[in-house]
Design goal:
Structural class: mainly alpha
Helix content: over 70%
Order of helices and strands: HHHHH
Shape: flat
Radius of gyration: 22 Å
Strand content: under 5%
């Protein structure tokens, strides 16, 4: 027997035929792959940021640039925490039959991590360009790059979601 819609016609099924647990398993696998990509980038960036303070050039930075650096390091640290959070969450709740809830929380942490990564990358770019060029166009260039990130990371995905889904 096939499913029927309200008019008695065969119902068109959208999506996968999977249980909540199967869906959570699939979504977890997809999410962890996404997190691996973001983690690698933030860990490399954070590692480089940690070394700057130990270079002779650091003492030559203006107070403003040192403040930007410190904010950037803190942003890198909290970004790392948000993007590693899903791994810790999974490890702590694994086997407790709460995978759908864990996937939701891990997804939220990952999205927060992406927003924090945007802030960390922006601050890093601002600092590097200020030190490298000392030009007044730096904030405009950084704003252009931020717009590009917003478009690639959020604009296109949200437009695709809006344009191609019905729920």
């Amino acid at each position: 027997m096939t499913d029927q819609d309200a008019t008695g016609n065969p119902a068109r099924r959208r999506g996968r035929n999977e249980t909540e647990e199967e869906r959570a398993d699939r979504m977890w696998t997809e999410l962890i792959q996404e997190v691996r990509v973001a983690q690698m980038g933030v860990q490399i960036l954070f590692g480089f940021l940690l070394t700057v303070v130990f270079t002779p050039k650091y003492d030559d930075l203006s107070d403003t640039d040192q403040t930007i650096y410190l904010v950037t390091v803190v942003l890198g640290a909290v970004t790392t925490g948000a993007l590693i959070g899903p791994v810790s969450l999974h490890r702590i709740v694994s086997g407790r039959r709460v995978k759908p809830q864990a996937v939701r929380w891990a997804s939220r942490l990952t999205l927060l991590g992406l927003v924090l990564l945007l802030a960390t990358t922006t601050a890093s770019l601002l600092l590097i360009l200020r030190v490298a060029t000392h030009d007044g166009f730096v904030p405009y260039l950084v704003a252009g790059v931020v717009f590009w990130y917003l478009l690639c990371w959020f604009g296109i995905p949200l437009w695709t979601r809006y344009r191609h889904t019905t729920r």
